[in-house]
Amino acid sequence: MNTLSYALLSLIARAPLSGYDLLQQMKQRVGPMWPVRHSQIYPELARMEEQGLITYEVVEQVERPAKKVYHLTDAGRQALRQWVTEPTQANTLRDEFILKAYSLWLADPQQALARFREQQQEHIQRRGEHEATLARLRQSWGAELDQPRSPLFSSAIALRYAIGYEQHYLAWLQQVIEALEQAHPGA
Amino acid sequence: MNTLSYALLSLIARAPLSGYDLLQQMKQRVGPMWPVRHSQIYPELARMEEQGLITYEVVEQVERPAKKVYHLTDAGRQALRQWVTEPTQANTLRDEFILKAYSLWLADPQQALARFREQQQEHIQRRGEHEATLARLRQSWGAELDQPRSPLFSSAIALRYAIGYEQHYLAWLQQVIEALEQAHPGA
DNA sequence: GAAGACATGTAAGAGGTTACATGATTGT
DNA sequence: ACAATCATGTAACCTCTTACATGTCTTC
Questions:
Q1: Which of A46, A110, A155, B120 is most buried, by CB atoms within 10 Å?
Q2: Model confidence at A187, in pLDDT bands (50, 70, 90)?
Q3: Is there a contact between B172 and A161 if contact means CB atoms under 8 Å apart?
Q4: Pairwise CA distance, residues B37 & A17, whole Å
């Protein structure tokens, strides 16, 4: 059992989904905390089915190709619940841009500034997307977002995490940009 | 050329180092942004030497086993400089604890609170370590930390990033803990 | 003489990315 | 016809982790 399989269980626990649906949802919802490709999803689903965590039924569709819709077994639900309440060792982030910042002293300050501003745009964009998603949830579900037993609460805190992350990233970028500008006025 | 090799170049660019030294420095300095094991370092150094990015000399020591001390070639320095000033595609974080938060609705609130408080301790600890390191740098080097052309500037901004990250993480943990406590008073 | 830091490697396997491959169905 | 979306898979390769393996030198 790897983390990916729990990520998939997390989504199937909310509603039965096909591999294709899972791919879309991983990109939209879980994407910020666990990116994934379809080439990883399909073999993983097969393994989980073998292990009895999920089962599927083939659903014929009128206007689309048939699909395998997976849902949790009791064992799957239990495995997920177990994993969620287990201690987690805090991860170390692996961020290439920060790694580059560590060698910023080697770079041409003008180019460095350009790169930092690029990142700024990127992270502003992402923050905006997360904020929009959270606003949409709030509009659709209102106070349910504040009920810890609701899946919506979980969605909301994950989104708030992502927004906070972008916020911190932007603050840091801004800080460095100002330091670079001060050292090199007129860039 | 993978990211790890650039991480190693980043350190060798500041001072010639052995594989063992690199391991220590990756843990202490670059650790927060790029964790690594010795079993990855040694083969990678061999590959980089083949590619002409680094060279080494065997240094005999009186009170320690001999070691291979690596230093950059011109090609290595150029490759590093090139990489630093290239655009970087912003990474997606991969955080298991946040993933678990996404399924928090399945968890027993008491246990959830316990896990969140564990994380709090962990991140408080980390923030403290980074702050101490930054304070030490500041004490040793003073205003040099503010000169973008100095390696110390790069070290300082990387540390500030790490501190900001822990800060944001702690703020988020606190937020969720308060929400859980409010829903379950007396936990 | 045992433990611990210093020092350097290899091997097996898990996890993840990129590329290859196929086919249905809808809209233009 | 062609592109786009829906839908599911396999294969090759790279990266990273875990475990295996060896040897030096110092301190207790």
A1: A155
A2: low
A3: yes
A4: 38
